[in-house]
Automatic annotation (TrEMBL):
SUPFAM superfamilies attached to this UniProt entry: PH domain-like (SSF50729)
Pfam family of the protein (one): YvbH_ext
Ranges for domain YvbH-like oligomerisation: 151-208
InterPro entries attached to this UniProt entry: PHb (IPR012544), PHb_sf (IPR037063), YvbH_oligomer_dom (IPR021722)
Limits of the Bacterial Pleckstrin homology domain: 14-136
Name of protein: YvbH-like oligomerisation region
Length: 208
């Protein structure tokens, strides 16, 4: 136990650990991840954590992870996680102990887990990100519930119609109209309850 503790202290002291730094807004355009942001489509950076080998770029649409194989390698892998496709969950913030030089934020995008060490002197800024991710997770959870309620309501309506007797020569037209209605209804549900842009949440909690 003592060996592990002193090993961690030595790694932190001599810069061998991978503690991230929160980047100021004025320097967002200097990070590698900025090259992969969809600026043309209104994507905007709100928060960046940069370590020796990785960048975590939080945008109004999700997370861009620029993954470095090592601190000395120039090879990078860029992965995107979008709020419209993946739910954010399991958000925790671990503050520093007496001898720790870093704090840690953990969260998941669907089935992908993240654990990021950050300089403990930047804890207050990291709290803003923690609150932002919590609120996005809450909104996503509510939206998923409302989306499911809408789907279930539509299914109940279709089941009721299927038990009705339809007579006449316009059965094909009725079927076509019902199909189009279902498609339009589902598209409206997705537009309403599947947020793609969380700019307002970032602007509420992130203090730049």
């Amino acid at each position: 136990m003592a060996g592990n503790l002193f090993g961690k202290m030595a790694a932190d002291t001599f810069g061998l650990s991978d503690i991230g730094k929160i980047i100021d807004q004025k320097d967002f355009d200097k990070v590698d991840g900025d090259d992969y942001i969809m600026h043309e489509d209104g994507e905007k950076i709100f928060f960046v954590i940069k370590s020796k080998s990785d960048e975590y770029v939080f945008t109004n649409r999700g997370l861009l992870h620029v993954d470095g194989a090592s601190a000395v390698s120039k090879k990078r892998t860029v992965r995107r996680h979008e709020f419209s496709n993946e739910k954010v969950h399991s958000i925790t913030l671990e503050t520093a102990g007496t001898v720790d030089l870093d704090v840690e934020i953990k969260f998941s995008f669907e089935n992908t887990d993240f654990s990021i060490d950050v300089d403990k002197n930047q804890l207050e800024k990291l709290k803003d990100l923690y609150k932002t991710l919590l609120e996005i997770s809450r909104i996503q959870g509510l939206n998923y519930k409302l989306l499911d309620d809408g789907k279930n309501g539509l299914k109940m309506a279709n089941d009721a119609l299927s038990r009705c007797k339809i007579e006449g020569n316009n059965i094909a037209k009725i079927a076509e109209d019902l199909t189009n209605f279902n498609l339009d209804f589902m598209e409206a549900l997705r537009r309403t309850y599947n947020n793609r842009d969380f700019s307002e949440v970032y602007e509420k909690y992130i203090n730049n």
